[in-house]
Every structure is written in structure tokens, then in C-alpha cells.
Amino acid sequence: MSGQGVLTTPTATAHRPRKQEPRGARFLQLLKTTDHKEIGLLYLVTSFGFFMAGGAMALLMRSELAQPGMQFLSNEQYNQLFTMHGTVMMLLYATPNAFGFANFLVPLHIGSPDVAFPRLNAFSYWLFLFGGLILMAGFLTPGGAADFGWFAYTPLSRAGFSPGVGGDLWITGLLVSGLGTILAAVNMITTILCLRAPGMLMWRMPIFTWNILFTAILVLLAFPILTAALFGLLADRHLGAHVFDPSTGGAILWQHLFWFFGHPEVYIVALPYFGIISEIVPVFSRKPLFGYKALVWATVAITGLSATVWAHHMFATGAVLLPFFSILSFFIAVPTGIKFFNWIGTMWKGQLTFESPMLWSLGFLVTFLFGGLTGVLLAAPAVDFHVTDTYFVVGHFHYVLFGTIVFATFAGVYFWFPKMTGRMLDEPLAKLHFWTTFIGFHTTFLVHHWLGAEGMPRRYADYLASDGFTALNVVSTIGAYVLGLSVLPFLWNVTRSYRFGEPAAVDDPWGFGNSLEWATSSPPPRHNFLDLPRIRSERPAFELHYPGTVEQLRNQNHVTEMFGNRPRQQTRAPSEEASDASDPQKET
């Protein structure tokens, strides 16, 4: 192969037909599996089921709010719905969904045959599943599910104001599923630090793996705080404890504990999806990732700052130092802006193509950008005082979280589905899914900012016709139904393609993959690799498939300026020097 940048076809891999198994054998296999790939898929499918349940709750609420007056829900039912909707979406969809991608991809990314503790990994999944079912079982009790908000502010969530089994099941379910999340984080940290393949230096890991590492660190920082607070609340409800007694400052104590968990949780459910976008954009830009190290250090900055801004949720309490938490909340926008700069820099002058993963990534960029801008507004106490507890915050929250989690989730599913199943998804259906979701989402939640500015309070089940909120609520409800229906093409696409989709006949069906999962078969074998390529950079799969372009692309990373007839000396990165020193085939 010459060094003139000639691109070759990625290595072909014969598609393995599915084995004919006795009925029920696959189900029994999943019950006892410790394969990280199968556990990752279990996380993804289960969390998507909870996502569908949370979406159904949202449609019920939006239907109730379409017109003034009470339509078909009672105040109590509405309270249960917004409590369970928030809890399910944050803690039973967003967080475990991120660990679904992490389970499937991290061992592949670092060249490992499995996670560090396979049985603990399976145990973590079953804790998540049973914890989620315990939480949802509140709907089956005579008094109904928890109704005190997903944030469970005390004293409202204590037994005197919220009696019944539903609240206890909510607390217990979160304790069980939260333990699963903590154990999963321990597993991810150990796997990344201890099981990297030869040549996989830390500075050669994919950005997604870096982000999972810092996500797991945040989990170990935040989730034990939530666990302790939930045990205290359970003691208040059943043992007559006074941990969160308002007469001794317990109401403010709960808010500090919950939001010290809650704001790192926002980045626990953001960093993995930032990593997904960082993997997809270079592939469909036909360029190396711009600013690899800057992205890593931006993640470090977000991780540190996310533990210092919790009290911006408490501006209206009058119990926190406004300038301190406001300034830190402004600061955390800086590393996020760096990530945007690097994603745009990766696309700049690239050979862009707009397959479905790239479309979803662009939808993520647009939506999350709007959410980030409204977040900067809410970091200013003067603005926050005006719109706190209004629909402006609901709009901001969904732009940040839906824009991050859901758009990036679907980007990741469309990107890695061939690797997960050995089949390609249908592109026209994928694009129909994208546009209906994009239009439905912005129709639903953009108007929430205007409703909030006009003064409509959140968490209310009713409003007066004279308030002037009806038209915007009708628009939002129409958008919500479009958003709900947009899931149907996706479900049909996945169901049909899993059985009858076009086989992914090569290791890298997208043609320009960078990380190691694109250097093994689709789907990968039980222990991931039959043989590993030499790892000399953060793009081992690309270097394996296009060896003639490696030196050319490295040279393009340096700019040579002429001073008279003397060229300016080129400086090589330390990782390149180390790579050359460790390469026995490199000429000396």
C-alpha cells in the first residue's frame, strides 16, 4: 500500500446466521448471562421500556392540560403522574440507559474480553430491574403511587403529609436500583483502569470511555448521598426519627442532600451522551476528532464543577449564598462550550454525510444548545426569582435532558445497531423517526418557555381560561402527541431489522470507524476479539483499515511555515514519540 492516501475497503466478515434454538432457550440464557454485551442490551431494552412508561405518563398530563378545567384526572392522580414521570425518566431510563451503552462498548473500546467483575455486573442489572419494578408497584397499591414530586421535598414527603405504601415503595425502589448503579460504577472504573489491552494508553482511549470513567466517579460521589437521604426519610416515616424535621432545619437539609445528588446526576446523564456524540461526529465528517485532549480536560472540568453548583436549585429559599453559586453555575458553561467548539471543529471542512446517526447528533447539538442558553439565564438569581417554579424551568429542563439523552440515545442506537446485532437499520424509517421527533419535541417544549414567562406555574393540574394559557397548551399537547407517535417508526424499524435487516457484512459498515469495536466482527464473538490490531493512536480501527493514510493524516496535524528558505521545525506530540518508540517495525 502506498502512502498517497488511497482508501481501501474495510475488512469483510462473513455474516453469521442465527442459530435455531428451542423455544425459551434464549430467555433462560439471558437470566444467567454474565456477557457484558448481553447485559448492556438488557440495560438498553429495559430502560427503553421505562422510557415508554414515562412517556405515557407525560401524554396523560399533557392531555389534561390541553384545556382549562379538570378533564379526566384528579389532582391526586396528576400529582402521582408528575412524580413518577420525573423519577422514571431520570433514574430508571437516563442513568441505566447510559450504563447500557457503557456495558456494551467499554470493554470493546479498550480491547478487553469482558468487564472486571462479570457476575457483579449481572447483579447490578437485576438490582436496577427489581428496584424499578418495586417503584412502579406503587400504582397497584390502594393509595396509589408516590405523589410528592420526584424531588420528594420534606416535610411533604414525610408520613404526616404523604401517608401510604406508595411513598415507601418509591423510596425502597430507589434504594435498590441506586445500589445497582453504585456497583456498576465500581465495575466501570476497575475495568477502565485495569483491563486495557497492550498499547491502549489512557491518552488513546475513545472519548466515550473517558466520559464513562468520569461518570462513574460522579456516581460514587452522588449516589451514596441520595442513598443516605432516602434511608433518613424512611426512618422519619416509619421509626419516628426527626432527620428531616422542619423545626430543626430538616426541610433545608433535605434540599441540600437531594440537590448535591441532583446536579451531579444531571452530568451523570450528560457525559456518556457527550461521549456518544464525540464518537459519531468524526466518522461522518471523515476527519479525526478535533481537540481530543481538550475534550478530555473539559470533561474533567465538568466533573469537578458539577459538585459545586447544586444550590442554584435553591436560590428562592434564601438559604444559600447567591453570588458564589451563580458564578460557579456560569463557569460550568465554559467546558461545555469547549466541547461544542471541538464538535464544530471536527465537522469544519469535513466530508460530511448525513446518515441517521449524524442527523440525530446534529439534532442533539441544536437542542442542547438551546437548553444550555436558558441554563445560563437561570444561573442569574434575578432571572431565576422571576421564573422559578414556572413552565420556563420545565422547558429548560427538557431541552437540556431530552436534548442530551434522547437525541444522543437514538444516535447511538442507529450507529451501533449493526455492531450489536449484525444487521443494518432501515435508513428512510430512521430519518422519518428523526424528523417527527425533532418537530414534535420543539413544538411541545419551546412554548413552555413562553408559558413560564407569562406566569404559568408548573405542577398544577388546572388553570383558568382567563389566564391566557390555553392556546400555548393546545400547541404543546399537539406536539406531545406527535412526539409520542414518532416512536412507532423506531419500534417497527428495530423489530423488522433485527430479523430481516440487511446484514452488516464488514467489521465497519460505516466505513470510517475509529475505535476498536470496528476492528471485530458484527456482532462480536463471546470474548470480543479473535485477534487485536496494534494500537498506536486513538484511532486503531481506522489505522487497521486504511494503513496508507496514517502518516499523511499525522502530517496534516502540523502546520509548516516558511521563514525565508528555512522551514519551521515541526513539533511532534509526546504520544506520537512514544508510539514510534514502542513500534518494533518503525525504522530507526
From TrEMBL:
Its EC number is 7.1.1.9. Keywords: Cell membrane, Copper, Electron transport, Heme, Iron, Membrane, Metal-binding, Respiratory chain, Translocase, Transmembrane, Transmembrane helix, Transport. Residues 1-21, 563-588 are annotated as: Disordered. It is a multi-pass membrane protein. The chain crosses the membrane at residues 41-61, 81-106, 126-150, 170-195, 207-233, 253-277, 289-310, 316-338, 359-379, 399-417, 429-451, 471-492. It is an enzyme of class 7 (translocase). GO terms for cellular component: plasma membrane. Signal peptide: none annotated. Residues 23-536 form the Cytochrome oxidase subunit I profile domain. It is found in: Cell membrane. GO terms for molecular function: cytochrome-c oxidase activity; heme binding; metal ion binding. GO terms for biological process: electron transport coupled proton transport; oxidative phosphorylation; respiratory electron transport chain. Pathway: Energy metabolism; oxidative phosphorylation. Its main location: membrane. It holds the Pfam family COX1. Gene3D superfamilies: Cytochrome c oxidase-like, subunit I domain. Residues 1-12 have a biased composition (Polar residues). It catalyses: 4 Fe(II)-[cytochrome c] + O2 + 8 H(+)(in) = 4 Fe(III)-[cytochrome c] + 2 H2O + 4 H(+)(out). Cytochrome c oxidase is the component of the respiratory chain that catalyzes the reduction of oxygen to water. Subunits 1-3 form the functional core of the enzyme complex. CO I is the catalytic subunit of the enzyme. Electrons originating in cytochrome c are transferred via the copper A center of subunit 2 and heme A of subunit 1 to the bimetallic center formed by heme A3 and copper B. Belongs to the heme-copper respiratory oxidase family. This is Cytochrome c oxidase subunit 1. It comes from Amycolatopsis marina. The lineage of its organism: Bacteria, Bacillati, Actinomycetota, Actinomycetes, Pseudonocardiales.
